[in-house]
Write a structure and sequence with these properties.
Layout (H helix, E strand, L loop, with lengths): L2 H14 L3 E6 L4 E4 L1 H7 L11 H4 L9 H8 L3 E9 L5 E13 L2 E11 L1 H15 L30 H13 L6 E4 L6 H10 L8 E5 L5 H9 L15 H4 L4 E5 L6 H13 L1 E2 L8 E2 L3 E6 L3 H7 L4 H7 L2 E4 L10 H16 L5 E2 L1 H9 L5 H15 L4 E2 L6 H4 L27 H7 L3 H19 L4 H8 L3 H11 L5
Parallel strand pairs: 6-11, 6-12, 7-8, 8-11, 13-14
Antiparallel strand pairs: 1-2, 1-5, 3-4, 4-5, 9-10
Helix pairs in contact: 10-12, 13-15, 18-19, 19-20
């Protein structure tokens, strides 16, 4: 392929990239400048190509220009915020990654990939403005546990009959009495923020701000200014703005996905935890804050330390009190309880009267591993409530990834006590009988369930607890089934 065609192809490829690309030679003359970079800078390629960098951007110099610094040092610069003014007087704010370009061992120029952060910066500043308006939280009246008032969760909202979870709740209540840092580990959807808010609400800080920030939601440069605030005239060009630490003074700051925070920012967080002082970006003075920091990660913390995603010194400083929340697959006895709770919640929200789920759906829920945990279970119930027309949620009302599953457990084997249709001891009539009677599988399963519950109650003299143990289900589940089906006396 001729060299001219190669160059044209390379330029066409670079032109399709949705980020600003600016290339200069070893003398700081622009040799490539794509349309995205032109849009970010408010210029046209013709106004930049072939011209010295400092002529087009007179507010920069050899020290503040990331391109010229890389040419001078030969070292790359990653994720560097830069604020500058072009020759038209337009202010530009970007985050740049700048790399040296070498031919053999000879440095021939530098290439810069720029991302526009103006919109993100505006959003973060609006967030700070909103957070600054926070006063003492106003608690709305709640008629029942789990009915969120839009401001806070409490320990009563953590619904469980799992012994491990109940022990964790007891430990969290004790931790609420102090102001020590807390680290919570749990898979996505296990209820980390629910625990965090409960600790805050049970503490002496409950009348002060509770502020949550996901560390993965913003670029590092914006996260730092959001946490620590800015001073007028700092390198970001920001006004005097308090950060989240100042806004949470006296209260609790929840940092979710802590391992997404860059390591250099983790070091600054460590200093705040050690001396209780913060310094705004661009400021030479420190301010003391009284903030309880609670952090959460969705991977084992020590594995994050070994991988280098979490500083070891920060881990030991923030891991004063720690909680590991079990996934839903390790607390299967809570599935029925949570299903009932979410049915009640969405019955109120949608003004519906769905009474329950079919035995087939109940078995499917107990066998499923719930990789999205409690959050996934809630979304499944909400999705089914959008599809159901009667009083009971059936398999066909579930999202496809569940509705299309084979009725076996995660190991691919039949569930406990299951036998094939018509096998000895199954208590279920052969398939031929079902077809002859023109009955569906859910109908047969409901009949078998009613009969088994009646037999269990009869053999235990009507003792619900003993009958539940005999059936291998929680007592609350049996009570719910009795109330729905009238299968026996309590």
């Amino acid at each position: 392929m001729p060299m001219s065609e190669t160059v044209e192809m390379l330029q066409a490829i670079l032109g399709t990239i949705d980020e600003g690309i600016h290339v200069v030679d070893a003398n700081g003359i622009t040799i490539y400048y794509n349309h995205v970079a032109a849009r970010l800078d408010g210029l046209t390629p013709d106004e930049v190509l072939g011209k010295p960098l400092l002529e087009v951007f007179p507010s920069l110099d050899r020290h503040s220009s990331t391109l010229l610094r890389v040419i001078a040092s030969g070292e790359p610069i990653y994720n560097q915020p830069q604020t500058y003014t072009n020759w038209k007087g337009m202010r530009v704010e970007t985050v740049n990654t700048t790399l040296p370009v070498r031919v053999g061992k000879r440095l021939v120029g530098a290439v810069e990939v720029a991302k526009d952060i103006r919109k993100l910066k505006e959003l973060s500043e609006r967030l700070l403005d909103l957070q600054a308006q926070i006063s003492k939280p106003k608690r709305a009246k709640r008629s029942r546990p789990g009915e969120w008032d839009g401001l806070s969760f409490q320990f009563a909202d953590i619904l469980t009959q799992n012994e491990r979870m109940m022990r964790l709740k007891d430990r969290a209540r004790k931790a609420a009495r102090t102001s020590s840092p807390v680290l919570i580990y749990g898979e996505t959807g296990t209820g980390k923020e629910l625990f965090v808010q409960s600790i805050h609400q049970a503490s002496s800080r409950s009348g002060k701000p509770f502020i949550a920030q996901n560390c993965a939601a913003l670029p590092a440069s914006l996260l730092e200014s959001l946490l620590f605030g800015t001073t007028k005239g700092s390198f970001t060009g920001a006004d005097d703005r308090p950060g989240l630490f100042e806004l949470a003074d006296g209260g609790t700051l929840f940092l979710d996905e802590l391992n997404s925070m860059p390591l250099d920012l983790q070091a600054k967080l460590l200093r705040v935890l050690q001396d209780g002082q913060i310094r705004r970006i661009g400021s030479s003075s420190a301010a003391r804050v009284d903030v309880r920091v609670i952090a959460a990660v969705n991977e084992p913390p020590l594995a994050l330390v070994r991988r280098g995603a979490l500083r070891m010194d920060l881990y030991y400083r923030i891991n004063v009190v720690s909680f590991e929340l079990p996934p839903l697959r390790e607390r299967r006895e809570d599935v029925d309880l949570l299903v009932r709770h979410f049915l009640d919640k969405y019955n109120r929200r949608f003004q519906m009267q769905v009474q329950g789920i079919s035995p087939e759906v109940a078995d499917l829920f107990r066998q499923y591993d719930w990789p999205g945990n409690v959050r996934e279970l809630e979304h499944v119930i909400e999705a089914a409530m959008n599809m159901v027309e009667g009083a009971v949620i059936e398999r066909e009302h579930l999202p496809p990834h569940l509705a299309e599953r084979s009725p076996v457990n995660a190991t691919g084997e039949s569930g406990p006590g299951e036998t094939g249709p018509g096998e000895i001891g199954s208590g279920v009539p052969p398939v031929e009988t079902w077809a002859a009677e023109q009955r569906t599988l859910p109908e047969v399963l409901r009949e078998v369930e009613v009969r088994m519950i009646a037999d269990a109650l009869k053999s235990t003299g009507g003792n619900v607890l003993r009958a539940a143990r005999l059936l291998g289900i929680p007592r609350q589940t049996l009570q719910y089934k009795l109330s729905q089906r009238g299968a026996g006396e309590r």
